[in-house]
Write a structure and sequence with these properties.
This protein has 164 residues and is α+β, with helices and mostly antiparallel strands. It has a single domain (2-160), classed as Nucleoside Triphosphate Pyrophosphohydrolase, CATH 3.90.79. It has helices at 35-42, 61-73, 138-141, 145-160; strands at 2-15, 18-25, 48-49, 52-54, 75-91, 99-114, 129-134.
């Protein structure tokens, strides 16, 4: 079984006494121009998730998380702590359809600068839109169970550390 190592970030900021989380929406996997497809696309379920990606050779997971956040959301952030590693297996839906064991390290990050969704046009292949969502809503809005758990852990951490 192949292995993949990825890293991602939960970028948070506090505004008007509310904690916000930077999230991304994935693009439609099969963009088409015919009318029937456009009707189906308007009814498609939006996949909301956290910015993350593969750790490059020679790169540390935290460095990859910060890079992926910047590339996929347009934001820069400072690390607070490592939340956890999520481990799972999947079958590639492209290419060789290999079974892959994946580890994703997630970090809690504090917003530093940048404008949400200010990303390159080339990144639009991977990210349809980056947006702020209420952190307390994230466990319901995020698409993947491991990411929902990361949002819950971020909420727990912030409850124990109100000084942030």
């Amino acid at each position: 079984m192949e292995r993949e190592i990825s890293a991602g970030g939960l970028v948070i900021r506090r505004q008007d006494r509310v904690w916000w989380l930077a999230a991304i929406e994935l693009p439609d996997p099969d963009p088409a121009t015919d009318t029937a497809k456009q009707v189906r696309q308007s009814k498609r379920k939006i996949t909301t998730c956290l910015p993350k990606g593969l750790v490059d050779a020679g790169e540390k997971p935290l460095e990859a998380a910060l890079r992926e956040v910047r590339e996929e959301t347009g934001l820069t952030a400072t690390p607070i702590l490592k939340l956890a590693d999520i481990k799972y297996s999947y079958v590639r839906s492209w290419g060789d359809r290999a079974r892959v064991f994946k580890i994703v390290s997630f970090y809690l990050l504090h917003y530093e600068s940048g404008k949400i969704d200010d990303i390159s046009e080339g990144m639009r292949i991977e990210v349809a839109r980056a947006k702020w969502i209420r952190l307390e809503d994230a466990p319901q809005l995020l698409a993947y169970s491991g990411e929902k758990q990361m949002a819950r852990q971020a909420l727990e951490y912030l409850a124990l550390h109100p000084e942030l």
